[in-house]
Design brief:
Number of helices: 17
Number of strands: 10
Helix content: 55-70%
Structural class: mainly alpha
Order of helices and strands: EEHHHHHHEEHEHEHHEHEEHEHHHHH
CATH architecture of the largest domain: Up-down Bundle
Strand order of the largest sheet: 1-2
Strand content: 5-15%
CATH class of the largest domain: Mainly Alpha
Length: 465
């Protein structure tokens, strides 16, 4: 019921149902609200808006092909524009993700709302005349091809508009730190133990390269979701659609979105499997793995500040503790790594769902759409937050870095070409037991002079071949 309790009667093939009078949706949407009151997860806005754009493109193409009269097409287009431009509230699309696996309820929700708004424009009243949700808004379509089309359009748009810009900006910010830290020689670490030196710039440069590789993989994977199922209708045969419908709708959607969209190479595969979505989710998972590594490196290197490694200094964005005054925690690292864990879980769900196609249809579409959209949205937001609130203000504690480097026993590696591995190992062990320096033990053991040690053990020279 509406806020004032008023309803109106709508009908579908199963009979009448009461719908809140203030709402644009019809009987099938109302039945879905009643039959799938599961959890709090609603169909992503991105998928709904992609469906609305699809309805607009379909109406225009059906009119071009002579299947839909120009007057009805114009009404559908205007109604779709009202949704996309915010004149019709997203509250008109209230359905749960946890519905039929083909997304039929959401497809019909969009059909009903668009038709009702079109009729309101034409007559001042809602309902199914002159624009019918099935006969006109859904013309030449099936939920089985519209929902995966909308899923692909939404994901392709999120990659291009949100994920790629956020990732490129993070890469640029880290590249600036790489260059800033290029001359700072520090101790390397392998197995969480001291290793030979490198520069802080080289260490950060490794992160940059990881993200550049992830960017390439995400962009490559996003090309797969630019292939659209539209035109396949119910099982892939294209029943009830014009032969030119699919290519023309893909072209029109490309114009509306700026994406390079094309009809699927095989419409049967486009309905029965969603390997392109699985591949994009996997690429997002790969990006999350790189971000997890980087965030963990940052918080390890910033640990302390006095009882940890303390080589990086994080921006102090907010109090870190409700009980310990002055504490600063690596909160951006924690937020980013939690997002990464969520993406790992989403990808596992998407991979399993992608394996569940039966015959001519995969019926896990809403789950795949929801989880992959969430992964892309979370990664985009987390990368932007990490960049703005951590990376751009990241600093190096050069005194601490220098102190850690001077105490590293692995500098002895530079002696190996001159005195051999066994003698170098003996020096390192002796210095560790005695708490002395490598230089003192090398001279004491008679393996080199102080002058030779100083000439051979030069940390800066150890950071390149």
């Amino acid at each position: 019921m509406s806020a004032d309790g008023e309803t109106r009667t709508e009908t579908d093939s199963m009979g009448p149902v009461e719908v809140p009078a203030a709402r644009y949706w019809g009987a099938q949407t109302q039945r879905s609200l009643q039959n799938f009151a599961i959890g709090h997860d609603l169909m992503p806005v991105e998928v709904v808006l992609a469906l609305v754009l699809l309805k607009k493109a379909a109406a225009e193409v059906n009119a071009e092909l002579g299947r839909l009269d120009r007057e009805r097409a114009a009404l559908i287009v205007q109604a779709c524009d009202d949704v996309v431009e915010g004149r019709l509230a997203m509250a008109e699309f209230p359905l749960s993700v946890w519905q039929t696996g083909s997304g039929t309820q959401t497809n019909m929700n969009v059909n009903e709302v668009v038709a009702a708004r079109a009729n309101e424009i034409a007559t001042g009243h809602r309902g199914k005349d002159p624009v019918h949700p099935n006969d006109h808004v859904n013309m030449s379509q099936s939920s089985n091809d519209t929902f995966p089309t909308a899923m692909h359009v939404a994901l392709a748009h999120l990659v291009r508009a949100d994920l790629v810009p956020a990732l490129e900006a993070l890469i640029d910010a880290l590249a600036a730190k790489r260059d800033e830290f290029a001359g700072i020689v520090k101790v390397g670490r392998t197995h969480l133990q001291d290793a030979v030196p490198l520069t802080l710039g080289q260490e950060v440069g490794g992160w940059v390269a990881q993200l550049e590789d992830s960017l390439e993989r995400v962009v490559d994977a996003s090309e797969g979701v630019c292939e659209l199922a539209i035109g396949a209708t119910a099982v892939g045969t294209g029943l009830n659609s014009h032969p030119e419908f699919a290519p023309r709708v893909a072209r029109r959607l490309s114009e509306l979105t700026g994406l390079a969209l094309v009809p699927a190479r095989n419409p049967f595969a486009a309905l029965a499997s969603h390997d392109a979505v699985v591949a994009l989710s996997a690429a997002a998972r790969g990006l999350a793995m790189a971000l997890m590594k980087i965030a963990n490196d940052v918080r390890w290197l910033a640990s302390g500040p006095r009882s940890g490694l303390g080589e990086l200094v994080l921006p102090a964005n907010e109090p870190g503790s409700s009980i310990m005054p002055g504490k600063v925690n690596p909160t951006q690292c924690e937020a980013l790594t939690m997002v990464c864990v969520q993406v790992f879980g989403n990808d596992a769900s998407v991979a399993f769902a992608g394996s569940q196609g039966n015959f001519e249809l995969n019926v896990y579409k809403p789950l795949m759409a929801f989880d992959t959209v969430e992964s892309l949205v979370l990664l985009s937001g987390a990368m932007s937050s990490f960049r703005v609130h951590l990376v751009e203000g990241l600093a190096a504690d050069e005194d601490r870095i220098g102190d850690n480097l001077s105490r590293s026993l692995m500098l002895v590696t530079a002696l190996t070409p001159h005195i051999g591995y066994d003698r170098a190992a003996e020096i390192a062990k002796a210095a560790h037991v005695a708490g002395s320096t490598l230089r003192e033990e090398a001279v004491r053991l008679g393996y080199c002079s102080a002058e030779e040690f100083d000439a051979w053990v030069r940390p800066g020279d150890m950071t390149h071949p």
